[in-house]
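User: Quick sanity check before I run a bigger batch. Here is a single chain. Can you write out its predicted 3D structure?
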Amino acid sequence: MIGGRGMTTRRTILKGMAGASAWLAMAASQAQPAGAPGNVIKRAIPRSGEQLPVIGLGTYDAFDVGGESDRASLREVLKALVDMGGSLVDSSPMYGRAEAVVGDLTAELGLRRSLFLATKVWTSGREAGIRQMQDSFRLMRTQTMDLMQIHNLVDWKTHTATLKEWKKQGRVRYIGITHYHEGAYDDLERLIQTRDYDFVQLNYSIAEREAERSVLPLAQEMGVAVIANRPFAKANLFARVRGKEVPEWAQEFDCSSWAQFFLKYIVSHPALTCAIPATSKPKHLSDNMGAAYGRLPDEKTRRRMADFIDRP
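Assistant: Done. Predicted structure follows.
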């Protein structure tokens, strides 16, 4: 959900990585990152077995744009996402013009069959929810929504009833619930246990690890797919490592940048299905997608990564 802000810090870090700059330029135009071994890493959606690439694309802030000049880089971002093996694009009516921009560019580029489109309902009342979701279908230019989620659990009882019926009708393929704050974890856990939802989306990063205590193990036990929003902790993680080099031992899991370090920590958790960093920059998209290739850290290495970031 979050990730469009704070890019100045990230650009500063990337400018200091001469070797990475060449890698990013090449990766943006190739089906997979230069030097990345094997194919894109995918995880199964537990309820169906359908495979999703572990890195997707959030649209909060980054896709809330107006004119053609603003859309030019987003066109390249969507194209690069697909070229590099990604598919999940997540939006919401709360994100201003993002749904419309996703829909317009998807249609223009002919990418609908290559994308897993996800959005949310973010209002109260049955009829208001239906109208809003119908608007999302229209704006995103799709007859079937791959994933419709209840944003921040707003009026979840009402919308759950509607979405269960729509799923039976084939209007939505999967239904889910979302939140962005650990204060909602008790509610998320309670709803996960109902088995009514195929997906749960929540905040999870190397800086916000609270979900590891109970929500992620419960989702794994209940067979619920997990999408991680705020993977860079609102870009605060880049500020935390400003002036620091990626540790040499990160090469052991094919990591060449801080973005990949942060994302590989997330998607190496066995409960995770996909992380959705938001960006409007093609080079950042290419960097992010690098985390979907090569080796992932094991549990011992994940602890080492967390300790490294926690260190003053």
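Residues 1-9, 12-32 have pLDDT under 50 and may be disordered.

User: Great, the batch can go ahead then.
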